[in-house]
Each structure stands twice: as structure tokens, then as C-alpha cells.
Hints:
Blueprint: H1 2-20, H2 50-64, H3 67-81, H4 111-128, H5 134-148, H6 169-175, H7 183-191, H8 197-204, E1 211-213, H9 231-240, E2 249-251, H10 263-269, H11 276-279, H12 288-296, H13 298-312, H14 337-366, H15 373-388, H16 391-441
Antiparallel strand pairs: 1-2
Helix pairs in contact: 2-4, 2-5, 3-4, 3-5, 4-5, 8-13, 10-12, 12-13, 14-15, 14-16
Bound molecules: protoporphyrin IX containing FE and 2-acetamido-2-deoxy-beta-D-glucopyranose (6 copies).
Binding site for heme b: 207
Cofactor: heme b; Ca(2+)
Active site: 78 (proton acceptor)
Amino acid sequence: MASSSSTSVFLVFSSLLIFSTLLYVSEADYSAPIVKGLSWDYHHKTCHKVEKIVRKHLKKVFKEDIGQAAGLLRLHFHDCFVQGCDGSVLLDGSHGGPSEQTAPPNQSLRKQAFSIIEDLRNLVHRECGRVVSCADIVALAARDAVHLSGGPNYDVPLGRKDGLSFATQNATLNNLPAPTSNASTILSALATKNLTPIDVVALSGGHTIGVSHCSSFTPRLYPTQDPTMEKTFAHGLKEVCPTNTTNATTIMDIYSPIKFDNKYYVDLMNRQGLFTSDQDLYTHEVTKPIVESFAHDEKLFFEEFVKAMIKMGQMEVLTGEKGEIRAHCSIRNHDNKGYFSYLVEEEDQSDLESRAELLYVMCRLVAGEDDSGGELEHHQSLTNETERMDPQIRAQIARLEARISRVEARMEKLEVSVRYLQRRMYVYGFVCLMSVLYAIFK
Ligand code: HEM
Ligand SMILES: *[C@@H]1O[C@H](CO)[C@@H](O)[C@H](O)[C@H]1NC(C)=O
Ligand SMILES: *[C@@H]1O[C@H](CO)[C@@H](O)[C@H](O)[C@H]1NC(C)=O
Ligand SMILES: *[C@@H]1O[C@H](CO)[C@@H](O)[C@H](O)[C@H]1NC(C)=O
Ligand SMILES: *[C@@H]1O[C@H](CO)[C@@H](O)[C@H](O)[C@H]1NC(C)=O
Ligand SMILES: *[C@@H]1O[C@H](CO)[C@@H](O)[C@H](O)[C@H]1NC(C)=O
Ligand SMILES: *[C@@H]1O[C@H](CO)[C@@H](O)[C@H](O)[C@H]1NC(C)=O
């Protein structure tokens, strides 16, 4: 039983993979304006493997649990809507962040989404160094979540920096619309973010994958049932959530819950949308025809979704000198005690390299080769670099230097005993030779 269900999950997943390779919306297919400071090939020189690393790891993650795709897609949405796509949603201490449960929509972002992003960051930074921001990784993960679930593939403008400020509870509350909102409320809220009604309907299509807790839709069931909800659908939801306080989850697209497709819009036309904010898109006169067009034409939905995602992915981004590239996605570098040892690790390496070079020069000097002018200049510029460093790093380097001289002292002692042994061997050799000669001529 267990194995047959996991086999079928595997089959669905691999067919999604095969199918998804057929769908590619390239940036040439439409004109998506790019924000200044971002570019399609931002990491080309410094980390050209970043997209491969992210996709490879996520394929593995989704093979275990395709549900994680929805968590990652939603994470990008929450990041961008609250003070821009700056990774603030990832910060410990941000409302809606990994340790924060007090701001609604609380309980709802999957904990695993945060650890998957941190795993990706670690893989990317191990390969390239600290050159790709957490915000960029979130954007790439969301793209791959869509594509690896059967949705369109598309290029993501890159070059975001991570934010230095936390998302406050007010900002979180004010920027994430409630699922109980009607379409007019959603339209006007998202219009303040420059999103058109087409964008709003397309982005809501993100609900074609993933799950929701009862509390997000029980107001439509209790005390009275929302008359716009189809009866058998409502009956099924009441079984999952028998009271208005049940803590359970249910799929959001009953037609194809783990496949990124246009069936969400078919659900809406069947009055089987889960939230008021979903279903009302099929009531409002502006959005109703858009819902219908997406339900009939999946290709059109994919195109509009990609456009809207690229737009959303560039909301209030930090670029250039603004922000930073975090060494750990849930902690600002400034607050990161471990970050310091991380920096020193980097310094350690280059320091050891320069030490090795210096030793080499010294060996050559000892060996009598005196053409070290260039090398000494090199050493000079290293000294300059050391002087520009943070005092704490300098202290660390001083400690390293002390360690190195201790090692050197030990080596000197070793050398002494090697010379002593050598002398002993000469003596033994001499004694041995004498005894042989004695034996021969006796
Ligand atoms: C338009 C306003 C939106 C509202 C009111 C809204 C509301 C919600 C709510 C209440 C949940 C369920 C949370 C829970 O109870 O566990 C949810 C889940 C989700 N939302 Fe939205 N959302 C909106 C827009 C978006 C957008 C723009 C995207 C992405 C393009 C998105 C993607 C998702 C996904 C993938 C899930 C499932 C998460 C999971 O399974 O872990 N939503 N949304
Ligand atoms: C969600 O937040 C609301 C308001 O801050 C709070 O009343 C509620 O208890 C929270 N729910 C959970 C599950 O933390
Ligand atoms: C948060 O919003 C509430 C009302 O919406 C307001 O009274 C309060 O002053 C705000 N707090 C901050 C820190 O902006
Ligand atoms: C939508 O909700 C807002 C706020 O709750 C309300 O003022 C407005 O009348 C509602 N619009 C419709 C068309 O129901
Ligand atoms: C659940 O329903 C009861 C009775 O109708 C009501 O008093 C309570 O406030 C409701 N709780 C929630 C979380 O909606
Ligand atoms: C709901 O249940 C999950 C685990 O089943 C638990 O982690 C979570 O804290 C619960 N939420 C509430 C509001 O009780
Ligand atoms: C080291 O710094 C001094 C001034 O701070 C500068 O004159 C010199 O050219 C620098 N040396 C190298 C090799 O960069």
C-alpha cells in the first residue's frame, strides 16, 4: 500500500518533469521591464552555476515531497509583498519570519521552506562564495517550484540584495490581504503595488498547488454557509473542519492539487474556490472574464502568470550598494556572531596562502637565491591589506601568526633532532664499517 502510493507519487512527479520540459516561456516572449540594478545574467561571472545548483537540489527535495513546492512559492509572495523582495521574511525576528507566530497569517508559512532556502544558500555559497543573496535564492526557488510542478519555466531577473530591517507586524498585516477579502478589496490593495486586475487574477493562480488550514476558510462555513459555495464541496470541507476551531489542512485545488495548471480557474467556475478572495474573482465584473479566459486557455494563463511573477519579484528590491548578502538567511550579518568566524575562515585561507608564499621566498633566500624583489612587493601589498582590516580580524591574524611561529619553533626542534640522528647514523655507520674492515683483515 505504502509502496504503491509512493510509486504513484513518483510516477506523477516524473511525468510532471517530462511534461514541464516542454513549457518554456523565455524573456523574449514578452516585454517584461526590468528594474535598474537587476539583470538576467547578474551572476554569470561570479556564480554561473547558481541556477543549476538550486534546480538540482529542489528536484531532490520535491521527489521526496512535492508539497514543499507550494511552501516555496508562497514564501516568495510573502517576501515581496512585505517591504519588497529583500529576504526580510527569512529573518528571525521579522513578523511572519521563521520564529514569528504572532502576526496573522501566522501558522501558515511552512517551516521547511525556511530550511530549504538555507540549505540552498549553503550549497550556493560553498560553490561560489558569498555572492548570491537569500532574496535571489527565494526568487529562483519559487520559479523552480512552479516549473517542477508542471508550470511554465522562465528566466528570473537577478541581483537583489538582502534587507537590513525586519518586517514589522504592521507592515506584515497591512501588506498581506486576508483570504476573507472580497475581490474589490484585493484589487485595490494590489493596485497600490502596481498590479493590474490581470496580474491579480494570474497571481491568485498560485493557489493551483498547496494546502490551507481550516481557519483560512471556516468563516465561509460557520455559523452560516457561504451561498456562493457549491454544496458538495462545502460538505467535504465541513468533514475536514467539523468546527470553526479545527486545526487541519486541506488541498486548495481539488481538481489537481499538486500540479501547476489552470484548473484553479475551472474550480472557480464550478464555485469550488477555497477562499472568499479566490471565489469572488468569479463574481466581480472586472475579474470574471479574466478567470474565464484562463480556464479556457492554459497557455494564456502561463504567459500572464510569468509576467506577473516577474513584476512581483522586482517589487521594491534593494540593489547595488543597498542591503547586503547575508551569510545566513535568518540573521543579518551585523547580528551574526558566527558570521565573524565565517569571515575569518575566508581570511584564514588567503592568509595561509600568503604565508606559504612567504615561506617559499624565505626558503629561496636561505638557499641563496636573491631575486625576491617582486615577492617582497607582493608582501608589502599584503601588509597594506592587513592594515585596512577590521581590528578584530587583525587580532585573529595575530593569533594565527603566533600559532605559526610556535609551529616554526617546533619544526626547528625537530630539525635539531634530525641533525642529531644523522650524526648518530654517521657514527654507527663508521663503527659498522670499522667492524666489517676488522672482520675482513683479521
Ligand atoms: C491575492 C491575495 C492572496 C491571499 C488572500 C492569499 C491567501 C492565502 C492563504 C490564506 C493561504 C493558506 C494559508 C494556510 O492557512 O495555511 C494561502 C496559501 C498559498 N498561497 Fe496564497 N494568497 C494570496 C496570493 C498568493 C500569491 C500571489 C501566491 C503566489 C503566486 C500565493 C501562493 C500560495 C501558495 C502556493 C499557497 C499554499 C502554501 C502551502 O501549501 O504551504 N498566494 N494563500
Ligand atoms: C494568529 O494571530 C492572531 C492575531 O495576532 C492571534 O489572535 C491568533 O491566536 C494567532 N494564531 C495562532 C495559531 O498563532
Ligand atoms: C500599527 O498600526 C496600528 C493601527 O493600524 C497603529 O495604531 C500603530 O501605531 C501602528 N504601529 C506602528 C509602530 O506603526
Ligand atoms: C468588499 O469588502 C469591503 C470591506 O469589507 C466592503 O466595504 C465592500 O462593500 C465589499 N464590496 C462588495 C462588492 O461586496
Ligand atoms: C467559533 O464559533 C463560536 C460560536 O459560534 C464563536 O463564539 C467563536 O468566536 C468562533 N471562533 C472562531 C475562531 O471563529
Ligand atoms: C496545528 O497542528 C499542528 C500539528 O498538527 C501544530 O504544529 C500547530 O501548532 C497547530 N496549530 C494550532 C493553532 O493549534
Ligand atoms: C601601501 O600603502 C601605501 C600608503 O598607504 C602606498 O603608498 C603604497 O603604494 C602601498 N603599497 C602597495 C604595494 O600597494
